[in-house]
Amino acid sequence: MKIRSITVFCQPGFPVNRLLLQQVGIFANHARKLYQDAGFEVQSLRLATPPFEKYIAPVDLALAAQNYAIEAHADGFEYISLGPIQAVSLDWNHIPEALSKSDRIFLSGNLTTSEGTVSLKAARACAETIVRLSTLEENGFANLRFCALANVPAYTPFFPAAYAQPGRPSFALATEAADLALRVFSQATTLQEASTNLITEIEKHASQLEEVGNRLSQMYSYGFKGLDFTLAPFPDDVVSIGRALESLGLGAFGKPGSLFASAFLTSTLDQVQFKRTGFNGLMLPLLEDSGLAQNVSDGNLSLRDLLLFSSVCGAGLDVIPLPGDTTANELTPILLDLAALSLRLNKALTARLMPIPGKKAGEMTNFDFALFANSRILPVNSERLHGKLAGNEEVKIAPRIPHPPAPL
Length: 408
Description:
This protein is α/β, with parallel strands linked by helices and 408 residues long. 36% of the residues lie in helices and 16% in strands. The protein contains 11 helices and 11 strands. The longest helix has 30 residues, at 191-220.
């Protein structure tokens, strides 16, 4: 198990408040040292601000991104999230230019509103943004730093979803812990034993992480938001959440029984006691997991399968390679489905979709990137919406409320 990131949430504003950045930089580097002294590897320090529209004029977004990339990095932050554009915004067109300024900058876009509505217009704008970003860098790589958000709260430490609320600086941890599930599940002889032992293992690590976090909070008077103990993977079979789920008895993740295994794991995670923030669920980032990547290549996983599993897991559709000629009209229905699922089930979901220029469905990706496993391009199997679904409405999707059975 590793700490994927120590994410600091604050509002340095624009022009950037250099003193505040220096202060939170000192904190973040001290936090890294204390966690390392406690025996944890810390992979990155990250900074997340409030949604950029609260403090940056959209026309200045590219300049702000360039400045943040330089100044926050000088204080030790590898990556910076400037938060989501709001669903009702008219300024989505500024996102590609901002992301072109630095590979350290992350942004996102809201599909849903705080009133529990899905914006049809925002889904189209988000889809258009994904298509524009796909040609910005080789291999469609700019879409690694952008995602669609649906019902995602502040203080989620995983990028690109991370954003802050105005207020004093605070922090949270994102973990890389798929290896815990693989080890525990492989050693267990029953499902009950697998569940009980994973709860024990996570609580042991969480207690150590919280102890250091509480100590840091007292020292600096920064709020400790908690842990996102999502079992994030790494592209190696020993840190594969796909392999962990298969160790329960699946022939291959994606085949029938996979939804049950996913629900079993997320139900187990819900029973673990620790200070929570963020997703805290099952993350299925296709290109970041060698087991998932292999199952796609073998024909066991589709885009619709991954959306189905989002109904019982944690993060949604993550780093999904799609054909390079995928259109915004084809992406829009997928984003609407994800947004509806998030509101109906009252859960946070994201979509990080990656059209790969020059690639067709069924072809292999050719990333030369340590954090990605190569896989086959998934077909979209989507069509342009028409009629009422092609409008500009904001549509209320209410969470399901179970009704008592009618009297006999």
